């Protein structure tokens, strides 16, 4: 068996750990925080940093990771570091510690480590693209649309650091042997193969070869439904189990981060925006038409539980409000209602739903109970949307699928975007969707009526 000389980038993670630990300890010693037990404090923050980073996977940035992934990791790491940092005062009875200086310490560590992480990420991309360093040699087994797309990625995204060497196709006994010989002779690091072009025997031979020669083996999924999903691999005792859907928000840490953000953001909107906007709009709405200021409607939330979703009333009162969705040139919409619907101001009371935990700032938009019952029977995977809390805005809405559902294609595409969001949630994705929502509201949208 051939022994590999070493793992790639094996020094990057330890160096990053060492530098970051040096930064958090150095600033703690330089600033006048007034702690009684400096050694205890240094040990506490160092241990806390390591434990949090293991949980958030702060140092697990793959070479193909997007920049938003880096920003998300930074945010998650420092949210928990902030909480742990101030918990030291209560845990160890430190009444004389300067809260202000502790805040300065947190700000310095946040800025310094964030800059270091971003600079390291960018430098590694440049290093791979321009200096051909930190490179992994790869071969591809198979010849189809997906393997060609992967090869195009290897050849065009030089910053990922993959050097495409050769493609083997079609697969057969002799072709597989030639591939094995080539991999050994050219010191290839990773093998990518198409599942659709492998027989069971060939797959077994390929796995044995990769294991015995310490080569990384990765599979390109075929068109079968099971391989088109984002699978989750787990062990029940010693039995491997594949789950067809991995939902990031099922993780307690992710759910806590999202809820913390929802609480903070909704509280800010309620306190600084709705506190003065509500009485102003209430007066205008009351002057123009009879009826309540707020319109509430039963909708389905997480796990299909019903709740009342709130809006500023934008239509004249009618008996079929819970059954009929708004359409273009809808005669029920008032003059002020047309304005607040076009600017999405009518949705702002839903921040009360967010604060109460019934909704999230970002998530699949909740539908009327009538439509949920209808689409749940007609549209494949529609009910998957209810694995998470509904949102004031969502990925589907930023991609043009908001407002009235005119055709079956509208709801099918909306469901696809919602499922993608559920399976790929990150705080960075939430922030991106929120930013896009604000831009769309400023520019105006065709279906904002």
From TrEMBL:
<feature type="transmembrane region" description="Helical">
    <location>
        <begin position="70"/>
        <end position="93"/>
    </location>
</feature>
<dbReference type="Pfam" id="PF13727">
    <property type="entry name" value="CoA_binding_3"/>
</dbReference>
<feature type="transmembrane region" description="Helical">
    <location>
        <begin position="263"/>
        <end position="285"/>
    </location>
</feature>
<keyword id="KW-1133">Transmembrane helix</keyword>
<protein>
    <submittedName>
        <fullName>Undecaprenyl-phosphate glucose phosphotransferase</fullName>
        <ecNumber>2.7.8.31</ecNumber>
    </submittedName>
</protein>
<keyword id="KW-0472">Membrane</keyword>
<comment type="similarity">
    <text>Belongs to the bacterial sugar transferase family.</text>
</comment>
<dbReference type="GO" id="GO:0089702">
    <property type="term" value="F:undecaprenyl-phosphate glucose phosphotransferase activity"/>
</dbReference>
<feature type="transmembrane region" description="Helical">
    <location>
        <begin position="41"/>
        <end position="58"/>
    </location>
</feature>
<keyword id="KW-0808">Transferase</keyword>
<feature type="domain" description="Bacterial sugar transferase">
    <location>
        <begin position="258"/>
        <end position="442"/>
    </location>
</feature>
<dbReference type="Pfam" id="PF02397">
    <property type="entry name" value="Bac_transf"/>
</dbReference>
<dbReference type="InterPro" id="IPR017473">
    <property type="entry name" value="Undecaprenyl-P_gluc_Ptfrase"/>
</dbReference>
<dbReference type="InterPro" id="IPR003362">
    <property type="entry name" value="Bact_transf"/>
</dbReference>
<dbReference type="InterPro" id="IPR017475">
    <property type="entry name" value="EPS_sugar_tfrase"/>
</dbReference>
<dbReference type="GO" id="GO:0016020">
    <property type="term" value="C:membrane"/>
</dbReference>
<feature type="transmembrane region" description="Helical">
    <location>
        <begin position="15"/>
        <end position="35"/>
    </location>
</feature>
<feature type="transmembrane region" description="Helical">
    <location>
        <begin position="105"/>
        <end position="127"/>
    </location>
</feature>
<keyword id="KW-0812">Transmembrane</keyword>
